[in-house]
Design brief:
By secondary structure, this protein is mainly α. It has helices at residues 15-28, 40-54, 59-68, 81-95, 102-124, 128-139, 146-173, 177-181, 186-208, 226-233, 237-251, 257-273, and strands at 216-218, 223-225.
């Protein structure tokens, strides 16, 4: 038997077909996208190799399978690859006659997409990119393109490898994948990633957001530098306040990025004209 076969060509997927499912999800999850059903079109496309293999001579089952995955779906595409792997495994078993109903497959998707989105977003949005981009900023300090090349290459390769790993683990483990990978530790992992992400964001804020008070109090006896006094009490206090102000306006006041830039511009002009900064 060829190494390219998983078990039996007539009932199982080849490695090439499995890789095609993973690659289709990675490539189309956020490019074949609709605001009504979000990632459902990309998810459906990723399942096509299965349906084409098992249902090519049964149009009714093909249509039913496509409709089954055309409902709303949204998760982190990298860590969420676990779901694709689990569902792909279930679809193969279903096509081979296993007693797996459509509702059960949908429940697996709905039940896992939320928790995996939380964990995945904490890792792939709030933890890894700030670290990679902070290194890239340093590499680009003198106008070098090395920083941009480094950031794009590392983030792309990292996302691709993570998606493939989670998908393959999901496919190999089937329905038990989520318990094998995370189990009862899911809540702890999610909390840990959130704390780590916030720590990284705080470090980036302290390193790259600058605000210096130039105003001083001058008397015949002494000169008081307000910035030095503030740094002695709470270093980087004003940059922290500016970040929190931006967060508040974006999240609770529904400001757009353009409006937020306008707010900061007005603040800078006013403080500059009054000689505070």
């Amino acid at each position: 038997m060829s190494e390219d076969k998983v078990v039996n060509e007539s009932t199982q997927l080849t490695k090439k077909e499995i890789n095609k499912i993973w690659w289709t999800w990675f490539k189309y999850a956020l490019t074949v996208f609709g605001y009504e059903r979000l990632q459902a079109p990309g998810f459906t496309l990723s399942m096509l190799p299965i349906f084409q293999k098992f249902y090519k001579n049964d149009p009714d089952k093909m249509v039913a399978a496509l409709k089954r995955h055309s409902v709303f779906y949204n998760t982190n595409i990298n860590v969420g690859g676990v779901v694709n792997g689990i569902v792909a495994s279930m679809e193969v078993e279903k096509a081979n006659g296993a007693d797996i109903n459509d509702d059960f497959i949908q429940n697996i998707k709905v039940g896992l997409m939320g928790p995996l989105a939380g964990i995945g977003d904490a890792i792939t949005q709030a933890t890894v990119p700030p670290i990679v981009l902070s290194i890239a900023i340093g590499l680009s300090a003198n106008g070098s393109i090395l920083g941009a090349v480094f950031a794009v290459s590392v983030l792309y390769i990292y996302a691709m490898l993570l998606t493939k790993f989670t998908f393959m683990q999901g496919y190999k483990s089937g329905r038990e994948a989520i318990h094998k990978l995370l189990g009862k530790q899911m809540a702890r992992i999610q909390d840990a990633m959130s704390v780590l992400g916030l720590t990284v964001v705080g470090a980036i804020t302290a390193s790259y957001v600058n605000f210096t008070i130039t105003a001083q109090y001058v008397s015949e006896y002494s000169t008081i530098n307000f910035q030095e006094v503030l740094d002695g009490i709470f270093p980087k206090f004003i940059p922290m306040c500016l970040v929190l102000l931006g967060f508040y306006l974006l999240k609770y006041k529904k400001f757009s990025a353009i409006k937020l830039i306008g707010v900061y511009l007005v603040i800078a002009i006013v403080l500059g004209l009054t000689g505070i900064v």
